[in-house]
Amino acid sequence: MKILIVDDHRLIRDAIQSYMEGDLEYEVVGEASHGQEAIKFLEENEVDVVLMDINMPIMDGLQCTKEIGKRWPQIKVITLSMMSDNQHIKQMMGAGASGYVLKNCSERELKNAIKTVYEGDTYYSSEVTEVVMSNLMRNKPTKTSHMVVDMPLTEREKEVLELIIKEFSNQEIADKLFISPRTVDAHKRNLLEKTGSKNIAGLVMYAINNQLFEDL
Q: Rounded distance, CA 56 to CA 79, Å?
């Protein structure tokens, strides 16, 4: 996996670089101190996963993530930040980040996040998930404010959605439901289309709004 580190602090870039040294599965192919440098690097180099800080000079992580999504939709972006407030999380997820991990994470978690998004899943650290869920629950609507969907979800789609909310990976969902990971991907695409969601957070919101599961 070819990785680009985008952070305006050299100490952070060096620390991440040291995490990856000696592990042939993870290759840091470049570094950038702001979004503009990252875009220039991506124009000339092949990258699979970008580790993206948020607050940077010249071009911040939010704008850079949006630009990457427009020009290189195949590249996965993981937000790597010290900020765990709902506003920044929501903005980065809306910009197209496939993951959000805090900078105080362990080497093991960071590598797991990289591998997870590289394989097509999303990854959010437990602290980030708690913030998102807490905010959604605070804004939980009443029964009279349910969303109306033209295409109702099938029972299988509901099963997949429940496991997504419980943070099961594609492979774990496939194993539990005795289907292939490719079928899981198809169900995810259908769920996003039917619910009008852009990402996993949107699916969680949909499930809460429609009170699909008793524990939401």
A: 13
State how far the Cα of 111 lies from the Cα of 59, in Å rounded to an integer.
Answer: 26
Q: pLDDT at residue 137 above 70? A: no
Q: How many other C-beta atoms are found inside a 10 Å radius of the C-beta of residue 158?
A: 16
pLDDT for 159 = 92
146 within some domain: yes
CATH number at residue 79: 3.40.50.2300
Hey, what are 173's tokens? 């969902």
CA distance 90 to 85: 9
Number of domains in the chain: 2
- Decide if 28 contacts 3 (C-beta within 8 A): yes
d(CA 167, CA 26): 24
**How many contiguous H segments (helices) and E segments (strands) does the chain have?**
10, 6
Report the distance separating Cα 33 and Cα 21, nearest Å: 20
Q: What is the DSSP letter of 58?
A: S
Question: What is the radius of gyration, based on Cα positions, of the chain?
Answer: 18
Q: What is the pTM of this model?
A: 0.71
